[in-house]
Amino acid sequence: MKPRLATGAAFSFALLPVREANGEVDRRQRRRDGGGEAMADAKSYERARAMRSALTPPEARLWTALKSQQMGARFRRQHPIGPYVLDFYCASAKLAVEVDGMGHSDPEQAAHDARRTRWLAGRGIRVVRIEAVRVKDDLAAVIDFLHAVLADR
């Protein structure tokens, strides 16, 4: 396994995975790394941390529902995987939920979204895109849809 680099104000060092006696990677390490998916770089972690405190209103509304609903799965918000930060991620189902605002209809942004979806699909992660207006206008239908998607995973 390739070591991750951690950086600080005046230092940098490699973080090696913690191995148990049987050779398996420590579960805590896997959880921090996104359940075994491609590890994010330090920049992605920093962006994710900043994005968690600046959710859009539709993201905040969906997050409140995902936390309080009995979804049968645990979601993380603004979760970094590889070079990307996912709006919401369920590691057990390998499911990414993206809340798309008006900017995602821009052809350049749509092309970026397609590249990102292909990259994630190559790692076994299914991406579900939900329009922000749907979250705003019909949250119950969005939650029902996510229940159905989770049942299929």
Strands, total number: 6
CATH class of the largest domain: Alpha Beta
Q: Strand order, biggest sheet?
A: 3-4-5-6
The end-to-end span amounts to: 28 Å
- Cα-atom radius of gyration: 17 Å
Compressed to H and E, one letter per element, the order equals: EEHHHEEEHEHH
CATH-scheme architecture of the largest domain: 3-Layer(aba) Sandwich
Helicity, as a percent range: 40-55%
Largest sheet: 4 strands, mixed
Mean pLDDT: 76
Q: Runs with pLDDT <50, length 5+? A: 1-20, 25-36
| Number of distinct helices | 6
Helix-strand category: alpha+beta
Q: Give me the CATH superfamily of the largest domain.
A: VSR Endonuclease
Strand content: 15-25%
CATH topology category name of the largest domain? Endonuclease, Chain A
Shape field: globular
Estimate nothing, just give the exact number of structural domains: 2
Can you tag this structure with a few keywords?
153 residues, alpha+beta, Endonuclease, Chain A, two-stranded antiparallel sheet, 6 strands, globular, disordered N terminus
Please provide a brief summary of the model.
The chain has 153 residues and is α+β, with helices and mostly antiparallel strands. The chain folds into 2 domains: 1-32, no CATH class; 37-152, Endonuclease, Chain A, CATH 3.40.960.
